[in-house]
Design brief:
The chain is of the alpha+beta class and 268 residues long. It is built from 11 helices and 6 strands. The structure holds zinc ion (ZN). Zinc ion binds next to α7 and α10.
Length: 268
């Protein structure tokens, strides 16, 4: 008991330390993304009167206004989440959320299994935390036991199996871990926008946003010049999960390879 309290305290101190640490080490990437968004917004605002003038001339004002409203919404989302990242919002949120959970780092066996997929230097593997128990029991009761990743934390449910309803941890499910790690990878390379984008597709498709058509469709997509970044956030995670499953079962993974390369090149 004493040691588990000590371990919990050590983990919370680590969470607290990550805030100033990431404020500094992630400043270049985070400020760069925000600056880029500001430049894109400034340029769009500058050209807006010309586009609207053209739309009036062509009688397409209503359509153009609808398009502009949608683009503004997307831009505003980016601006807000990038500002949130810049002030260390992810670290503050994770610190608070972890207060009611049990967190553990990836095991040596898990690291060995996942590092060849994402590349040795593309993720801070030692910073990844698997969260289980505590307030998560309540969350999983409401979301139907759907595992999810918030920033550098992967939340795994406990599944009830058999007639007795024995509790089985989903931690042994390595393909699921790979799926959720893809979301961590997305966060690491594009920032918190991945979370808003994933939730948007989950809601607008009624959770039907994972399908990408399997290896045959993937092959066709590649031939048509489709890139990994053109798939939505859930499809991206599902592609990497399925690659891993095929790989573990010694099945043909050729259809997945080009997209895996793009993932490792951080083309998200
Ligand atoms: Zn997912």
């Amino acid at each position: 008991m004493f040691f588990s309290i000590l371990y919990w305290l050590k983990e919370r101190l680590r969470d607290a330390w990550l805030w100033p640490l990431n404020l500094v080490r992630d400043f270049p990437a985070r400020s760069g993304r925000l600056l880029n968004t500001l430049l894109v917004g400034g340029k769009a605002a500058l050209y807006a009167p010309i586009f609207l003038g053209q739309a009036v001339w062509l009688g397409q004002l209503r359509r153009q206004v609808r398009h502009a409203a949608r683009q503004t919404g997307i831009w505003l989302h980016l601006f807000l989440v990038q500002l949130f990242d810049l002030v260390g919002g992810p670290e503050i949120c994770q610190f608070v959320m972890h207060l009611g959970m049990h967190t553990t780092p990836l095991t040596a066996a898990e690291m060995t299994a996942v590092q060849p997929i994402f590349g040795p230097h593309n993720l801070r593997y030692q910073d990844v935390r698997i969260a289980q128990g505590g307030i998560l029991h309540l969350i999983f009761r409401y979301n139907g036991g759907l595992a999810f990743a918030t920033w550098y934390t992967i939340h795994l449910p406990v599944k009830r199996e058999g007639g007795e309803g024995t509790a089985v941890s989903t931690r042994q499910n390595l393909p699921l871990l790979v799926h959720e790690l893809t979301h961590v990878f997305q966060y690491h390379h594009v920032g918190s926008r991945y979370l808003g984008e994933a939730i948007y597709y989950l809601i607008t498709t009624n959770r039907n946003c994972y399908q990408y058509g399997g290896p045959a469709k993937l092959r066709a997509c590649y031939q048509q010049g489709k890139h990994f970044r053109h798939f939505n956030r859930e499809q991206q995670a599902q592609i990497i999960q399925d690659y891993f499953t095929h790989h573990c079962q010694s099945q043909d993974t050729a259809a997945y390879e080009p997209f895996l390369v793009q993932l490792r090149q951080q083309e998200l």
